[in-house]
Amino acid sequence: MNKITRQAYIEELARLQQKVVEMGMAAAEAVGLSMKALVENDKKLAEEVMKNDDVLDDMIVDIEDRCILMIAKQQPIAHDLRVIATGFKISTDLERIGDHAFDIAKTAKNIDGDLLANIVDTPKLAACAVNMVEMAIDAYRLADIRLAEKVCRADDEMDSLFANTFEELSKLMINDTLRTKQQATQLIFIARFLERIGDHATNIAEWVIYLETAERIRKTKGKKNELLQNDPL
User: Fold this and answer.
1) How far apart are CA 223 and CA 190, in angstroms?
2) Residue 41, C-beta contacts closer than 8 angstroms, at least 6 positions apart
3) Which of 8, 15, 45, 119 could form a disulfide with 37 if both were Cys (CB 3.0 to 4.6 A apart)?
4) What are phi and psi of 217, to 5 degrees?
5) What CATH number does residue 37 fall under?
6) DSSP letters of 78-136?
7) What number of other Cβ atoms are within 10 A of residue 144's Cβ?
8) Which domain holds residue 132?
């Protein structure tokens, strides 16, 4: 590979990473807006979030196409291959985060007013989820392993918030009115969506660590991250 071709290839890898960062920012924004629509009972905003899901779908197609073409044309190895592989995998997690934002917005559009969302830990859960996604994308953008590890540790806080939220909502479902029970049921689903967003942010952080170290790790609930293997790439 001559110098000009190599330089063009490096620039293409950088463009791929920038596309992933842009998708990550869009996904984090979608989560935040979907929760804003829910808490403020803003049906119009909920509809906008749902419509904008197509943007994230287009982004992942673009990223996947770029990854496939670079593998086919350049036959990358070592760090270059990890850049492409992690771009592909992270975009998948981001697309799923966008799907969960869509689901939250759909609930916000259909649920009645007088929400319970402000009297349980759902907003805290949402803030934690958005923060984890933003930190994971920053870790990817900055190649910051320590920040990625911080995201992995934050997953424990997310799990604790989810457990508290689930307990509060479950009590309301047992002891309160039919209307309250219906809302509590919807909010349990939303809490689960937010908890899953935290899981996807953790996945992204783990891919960042893999990209920079060639080490595959798995976040084990309540335990330290465990090393899976050293990658020869």
Assistant:
1) 26
2) 108, 113, 115
3) 45
4) -125, 165
5) 1.20.58.220
6) HHHHHHHHHHHHHHHHHHHHHHHHHHHHHHHHHS-SS-STTTSSHHHHHHHHHHHHHHH
7) 16
8) 3-230
Among 14-23, 59-68, 70-79, 129-138, name the one with the lowest average pLDDT.
70-79
DSSP 155-215: HHHHHHHHHHHHHHHHHHHHHS-HHHHHHHHHHHHHHHHHHHHHHHHHHHHHHHHHHHHSE
d(CA 116, CA 222): 29
Q: Yes or no: say if 129 and 158 are a contact pair by the CB < 8 Å rule.
A: yes
What per-residue confidence (pLDDT) applies to 121? 79
Cα–Cα dist 149/195, whole Å: 18
Q: Are strands 226-230 and 215-218 parallel, antiparallel or unpaired?
A: antiparallel
Q: What pLDDT digit, counting tens, does each position of 140-152 carry?
A: 999 999 999 999 9
Please enumerate in sequence order all residues whose Cβ is within 8 A of that of 17, keeping only pairs 6 or more positions apart, or say none: 83, 87, 140, 141
Instruction: Provide the domain count of the chain.
Output: 1
Mean pLDDT to the nearest integer, 81-106 = 97
User: Would you state the structure tokens that stand for residue 195, as one six-digit string?
Assistant: 């908890």
Gap between the Cα atoms of 111 and 177, Å rounded: 16
pLDDT tens digits for range 25-64: 999 999 999 999 998 889 999 999 999 999 999 999 999 9
How far apart CA 64 and CA 20 sit, in angstroms, is 10
